[in-house]
Design goal:
The chain is α/β, with parallel strands linked by helices and 244 residues long. The protein has 8 helices and 15 strands. Strands 5, 6, 9, 10, 11, 12 and 13 form a 7-stranded mixed beta sheet that branches. The chain has a 4-stranded mixed beta sheet with strand order 14-3-2-15. β9, α6 and β10 form a beta-alpha-beta unit. α4 crosses α5. It is globular.
Length: 244
């Protein structure tokens, strides 16, 4: 018997957190994915012109932003991580139908996601490790020259970590590494200087946001200028959610 795909638009927070990956194998909309993130207390977006004086987010870096996303809160739930892996792989199939022999992702946030994608693609997987000074390390596994490597990430703001992964994989292998020319990203909120492609692989995502981020110590925050308070999502989550 075929189990129908659930109606995420009318689902409680409790049910969203318990979603069964086996019945979520259709394309999910941006609204559906945001509902899952919000159920995990992992997504907030400023209402903008609807309420310009509503509080905005103060990130852990000290910067101010109109958006807060915490992928870890979603991906630490094994069922939701599997759902996100399926959604990324499904979107990849629109661009690429070639072989996938390896799946890799940066340490540590993308490890679970990359492993779930490897399971779905019936591919090999090996964990990256963090090195000093924001580097990544690949060791104790060899990628053969005829094998195709899919590089995935959970969140991309700058291209620093993505480049570090590419550098580590190349330096850690004795043969030339054949990267698939696409990088699936669960959440893409790029800085203005991040290109559409990194190291010859085109970026695409399940969720994309044109994000406002400013360091108030270096330049004036437009939200503060309009009378909006900067609040830490960690300490003021309920207050921020009331504005959505």
């Amino acid at each position: 018997m075929t189990i129908p795909t659930p109606d995420l638009n009318n689902m409680s927070r409790k049910d969203l957190l318990k979603l069964n990956p086996e019945i979520c194998k259709k394309d999910m909309t941006k609204k559906h994915l945001e509902a899952i993130f919000m159920a995990c207390d992992a997504f907030w977006h400023h209402p903008g012109e609807k309420n310009p004086t509503a509080p905005h987010a103060k990130l852990t870096s000290g910067k101010h932003s109109n958006i807060y996303i915490n992928c870890t809160r979603v991906l630490q739930r094994s069922n939701l991580c599997q759902i996100m892996a399926y959604q990324l792989l499904r979107r990849l199939s629109s661009f690429y139908n070639g072989p996938i022999d390896w799946v890799i992702g940066s340490d540590s946030a993308a490890l679970g996601l990359s492993k779930d994608i490897a399971n779905l693609a019936n591919a090999k997987w090996h964990a990256m490790q963090k090195g000093p000074d924001k580097t990544q390390i690949w060791e104790k596994a060899t990628i053969m020259p005829e094998e195709h490597v899919l590089h995935v990430e959970e969140l991309l703001t700058t291209n620093q970590t993505t480049k570090a992964v590419r550098t580590a994989v190349r330096e850690g292998n004795p043969y030339q590494v054949n990267f698939i020319p696409y990088i699936p990203v669960l959440v893409l909120r790029p800085d203005k200087d991040v290109p559409d492609s990194i190291d010859g692989s085109k970026l695409f995502s399940c969720l994309y946001y044109d994000t406002y981020v400013v360091d108030p110590e270096k330049e004036e925050c437009e939200f503060c200028k309009n009378g909006s308070s900067a609040l830490s999502p960690k300490n003021h989550w309920d207050e921020l959610m009331e504005t959505m």
